[in-house]
Amino acid sequence: MVFEQMWRDLAPVGRSAATGGYHRQPWTAVDAELRAWFREEAERRGLAVEQDPLGNLVAWWRPAGTEGARPVLTGSHLDSVADGGAYDGPLGVVSALAAVDLLRERGTVPTRPVGVAVFVEEEGSRFGLACLGSRLATGQATWADVRHRRDAAGTALEDALAAADLGDDPAATGPDGLRWGWLADVEAFVELHVEQGRGLVDLGAPVGVAAGIWPHGRWRLDVTGRADHAGTTRMEDRADPVLTFAMTALAASKQARLAGQRATVGRVEVHPGAANAVPSRVSAWLDARADTEEALAQLVAGIERQARDRAARDGTALEVTAESVSPRIAFDADLAQRLAAGHERGGWPVLWTQAGHDAGVLAAAGVPSAMLFVRNPTGVSHSPEEHAEVPDCLAGVEALADALARLAA
Known about the structure:
Order of helices and strands: HHEEEHEHHHEHEEEHEEEHEEHEHEH
Binding site for allantoate: 218, 276, 289
Binding site for Zn(2+) 2: 88, 123, 382
CATH architecture of the largest domain: 3-Layer(aba) Sandwich
Binding site for Zn(2+) 1: 77, 88, 193
Helix content: 25-40%
Shape: globular
CATH class of the largest domain: Alpha Beta
EC number: 3.5.1.87
Structural class: alpha/beta
Organism: Nocardioides perillae
Number of helices: 12
């Protein structure tokens, strides 16, 4: 099968031999290999590839007679979190190409152009802003907003792009010039994605349709104290930012559990990082998600309040910076119901997701958007154990092809 072959070809790229996880960060050598793979697959199908200055890609299927018609878009992303899973993102890209193949096998000729998109830096794992590529493509962020962002190694985004040598200079296009104007004319965007939870496992369904995305965001917590000697400084004389941070992480977990929401601290930097010294500063990143925007604001405010109370007792100082906040997104309800009801066995289930996606960014920009999920039997994501069975993946390809056939007809 074409799907399985594409998956085998893509599987080794960026994979760690030690853990089995993936390191597919944008604007790196691995990213260049992924980009080349996509271009080759597009060329094999006779699809014309378009690229913006940031590196967002779209491969176009434009049958005769579709000129001037509003296009239908599908696709996802190819980047991963550090040591992430194989399916988050790439499953949507591979399935989109396979869906084009399936439509051609069926003899379906769309009356609208069909595009397969690959958005860059969806995870935000390198420069800290999730869905960076789609935000810039839709004008929800500008080059001036992001060009000076730095990764963990201190490399600025503009320098990473220059090193990647993608062609056009984003700065030359002006502050808003990265926006793809044609996105405003997209008839619909459908993103297929591996489910990042156990909803479909519990429902016993291989495929589902997204109702929407919980509001979520990332907040940087900088706690400053006073560097000192680990042996000679009495405990009562210390201003230790690690203590403030530790209580904050525990408070975040407790408050999220009590409210039925989500709070995670997945990245911490301790300075200067010496085993025999009291640290001077701790920087940590809080990921918070909730079912409503009000609940999210209350969750973060409660965590911050407890952190400041603890900082006052520890003699430390706290600064909280919102780095990325996304509102609640309800996908086009009519579109979701059309996709769910189109299944011959009585309809795919419709469920909410707590994970952010490029489809949510396009929906916020006014593009009618929908998502299809493929069952993940482990329920684990952002981990090497993320998985989807081939029969479920093929069911996802069929569901996506059916969706594209209806939308592009």
